[in-house]
Amino acid sequence: MFRAAYLLLFACALETGPLAGDDEAVFRSDVSLVRVDAQVVDSSNRAITHLHAGDFILREDGRVVPIRNFASEDMPVDVIFLLDVSASMRPHVQRIADASGQALTVLGREDRMGIMVFDRNTRVRLPFNRSPQEVQREFDRLLRQERFNGGTDITRAMLDAADYIQREGRRDARRAIVILTDDQTEFDRDDRAVGRALARADAVMCALIAPDAGQYGGNRGGGGQSPGGWGTGSSLGGPLGGIILGPRGGSRYPRGGGGTGGARTQSAGTAQIARDSGGDSMSVNDASALEDTLARIRQRYTLYFNLPEGVQPGQERNIQVDLTPEARPRYSDAEVRYRRAYMSSTGGREAAPTHVTRAPSDNGYSAPSTSGTDSTTPAVPRRRVPVNEDGSPISGPATDSTPTSR
User: Fold this and answer.
1) pLDDT per residue over 120-129, tens digit each?
2) Sign (positive/negative) of CA torsion 88, 91, 94, 100?
């Protein structure tokens, strides 16, 4: 009798969830979890840490939804360094390379880093790698090998980086793009397209702006358009476009330049795009800019909620994140930064097997991650993939080989 009761209790425990002593579990959920990354800062723009799931309130299309899982600094990170190597940018890339030795120490053993560079085209210099030493060596190599004399297409670079991190980033990792640029582009900007690409990639963008790049040479002028981010619904520029391999092709010319030198430039809206994604914008002249940026990526919070029923794949939905009325008095000057919309990926279909690792926290919440291949993400139109420095395509899913241009 006692043995039968014990077996019954054990079966119920398996049915309702993992045992309290288990470190991790694998389960198949019949609803999808949507992830929201958020940063909380005070009036001095310093990160507020050690918050818990109970300190946040989350709304989806205006309705309060339960926070099902929660993670903070224990979540692994995939970060891409997206470096502007156009004319005038060498001193600023050198500054970041010099700072990388100290800055990379804020990342953990499970964090991965990659390097992409861009002028009018985008190139992968270093695929995702866990070795800070390899990242530093690649910084040194690109400083020797890049010519730093090309034009600039910043919108193209941001779109390509978002595509790369969507394809190669881990689902169980926080994804971030750290862009270094002077924000001066020869081409039309498209804030909305970049915002949607970052949403599809579930990535935040952090900007290191070189405000004094003009003194080192290179064309300026043009004057920008007023910053209007994805969060405000502005839409500038044309279709998404892709990477051109080898010599520049296509019919899209720089503003006022016709594809030759002397093109006028305008703001690419980099700082506003970063802010709309929930990220930061800092001056690269700040001595600790890179280290602070990486530390802030680690200090972000990740909230998960169930995808509402009836949501179709690829649908754009609005979200709101704030501190609860109980937490707000403790942090009266706090600002919560996050992307105010997300792109649904599964539309309520059965989710893939999900690997849950229990992160240490007072509230018992944990962050889910995928074990195996994500078979639920809908296909999106692919552009040409970034290439390695020798011109060969990086490893990854096959893509359309037809050249495209913006």
Assistant:
1) 999 999 999 9
2) negative
